[in-house]
Amino acid sequence: MIPITREERQWFLRSLAQGLIDYLGVQEPPVPVEDLLKNPPPLYDSDFGVVDMYSNLWDATFARPPTQRGSIFVRIDLDPEERRFALARETLSALITSKHGRAIGLFDLLLPHLRESAEYFASHLLAPATMLKAYHEQGGRARGMSKTFGIPPFVALQRWEDFHSIDHTP
Amino acid sequence: MSMETLNKLVARSIIDPGVVQAFTAGRIGDVISELDFSAELCDSLSDIEAESWAEYAVLAYRYVKAAEEREVRIQLPSPLEGLLPDEKRAEDEQAA
Known about the structure:
The complex is a heterodimer. Chain A has nine helices and three strands. By secondary structure, chain A is mainly α. The two termini of chain B are 33 Å apart. Chain B is mainly α. Chains A and B meet through α1, α4 and α5 of A and α1, α2 and α5 of B.
């Protein structure tokens, strides 16, 4: 794999997120990430799923038991916003380890920076630039973003700052 | 515009196996030629060699970004404009 910059990796992650949003056909927030995992694109029938768990060890983690469907195991007692973000974050692991993801070369491209990539991917899956732009143009403010997009306040703040500094283009 | 087209292609590739199949079969040029790229970019993107679709996408991003930056540079006015008096500028233009 050729060396790539952070900017290139982030562009690629935004495009992946946009592909899933296009599949869902949603134009307005909140992006229904749990619906996506429960009713995945046909390519990911064996890779997307959600299993609620009682756990104090993690908020969510993707696992693929041998010969079984991959699933995101998520803590049952998370706040709705935290749950959505954790599911979106772990969706990247599901993509990377899927048959299609491996065929594309996601594993080599994204694994060395998985945690950072997953959080970036999640924030763009749940708050894509097009929706954020529309929200901003309709008078939306940083304070209301967490509720409108269904994401944790610290993620909303970070995404809002990113949006205003770099990415007005989809 | 070209970057928007590339964004859409990469976004499509995550849910449409046809794009990656075309790449793997060495027919990505067929896909590219159907999209809204300039003839020059179309040739460049069709000729990219990469080990995987992800690598191809990143290399394509570099080509498209460079092409768009060149376009912006061409549209920029000369830095001399506004510094030279009108008469001098007219003389320079005549000489050219």
